[in-house]
Specification:
Layout: H1 3-14, H2 18-31, H3 34-42, H4 46-59, H5 62-70, H6 74-87, H7 90-98, H8 102-113
Helix pairs in contact: 1-2, 2-3, 3-4, 4-6, 5-6, 6-7, 7-8
Length: 114
């Protein structure tokens, strides 16, 4: 897709064209373009938010997951816990557990028992 085609697609998406937004989300996910997904998610696009969480997890971008989780996104929090456990990042699990996240506390306990 050319830069001009991307610009047109972006403009259509920003004008509320849901088909264009979905195409942008699909392209951004394929390209690992988390910035575009974040921009669309911040505009209230729940499909972009879901794809952002999935892509961030796949790319190991725990910072994005932490930011979304801190904003109250439960799906991001769950994915953050799963990713942190897979990567052995006990600091994230400890931080979430200390903030009252019962799942993080449980996963932390299991990780420490291993």
């Amino acid at each position: 897709m050319s830069n001009l085609e991307m610009s047109v697609l972006r403009a259509q998406a920003e004008l509320g064209d849901s088909d264009a937004a979905n195409q942008m989300i699909e392209l951004a996910a394929e390209l690992g373009d988390l910035a575009t997904l974040e921009r669309l998610a911040s505009q209230g696009n729940t499909t972009a938010a879901d794809q952002l969480i999935e892509s961030a997890a796949e790319l190991g971008d725990l910072a994005i997951l932490e930011r979304l989780a801190s904003q109250g996104n439960a799906t991001a929090a769950d994915q953050l816990i799963e990713s942190a456990a897979e990567l052995g990042d006990l600091a994230i699990l400890e931080r979430l557990a200390s903030q009252g996240n019962a799942t993080a506390a449980e996963v932390l306990e299991e990780s420490l028992a291993e």
